[in-house]
Amino acid sequence: MTPDADRGERVATDRARCLDKKAAATYLGVSENQIVRFINAGFLPIVKFPGQNTETGVDPHGVCRRVLLDVRDLDELIERSKETRGGAIFGQAVGRR
């Protein structure tokens, strides 16, 4: 942890890179259900780490079942979702062909 010289707080570079659905929802200011909809619609990829069972050392599914999201993908979603006065959203002009 790197304390901020002025306030003794963590600096942004020390934040967790992967967040669970609840933390991702808080980060984006939306509900957990909206995070699930973003995932199901393909707007947000999930991070899958190799799984491990404490008894056998291997998860029968081969991956950790916990849903994690990369903060960089959340930031990218924010950038793609910005709307301009001309109505552009997700990199497309709305109502124009």
Q: What do these coordinates show?
A:
The protein has 97 residues and is mainly alpha-helical. The protein has a domain at 17-81: Arc Repressor Mutant, subunit A. It has helices spanning 21-28, 32-40, 71-81; strands at 18-20, 68-70. It has a two-stranded antiparallel ribbon. Residues 1-12 have low confidence and may be disordered.
Salient structural properties:
97 residues, single chain, mainly alpha, two-stranded antiparallel ribbon, elongated, Arc Repressor Mutant, subunit A, 6% strand, disordered N terminus, 3 helices
What's the pLDDT, averaged over the residues? Answer: 77
Helix content estimate = 25-40%
Rg, nearest Å: 18 Å
- Secondary-structure element order, N to C: EHHEH
Strand segment tally = 2
Number of helices: 3
Beta content comes to 5-15%
Class derived from helix and strand content = mainly alpha
* Large-scale geometry: elongated
The level 1 CATH classification of the domain at 17-81 is Mainly Alpha
The largest sheet, given as strand count, sense and whether it forms a barrel, is:
2 strands, antiparallel
Which architecture of the domain at 17-81 does the CATH hierarchy give at level 2?
Orthogonal Bundle
Describe, in short, the structure shown.
With 97 residues, this protein is mainly α.
Write the layout of secondary structure elements.
Blueprint: E1 18-20, H1 21-28, H2 32-40, E2 68-70, H3 71-81
Antiparallel strand pairs: 1-2
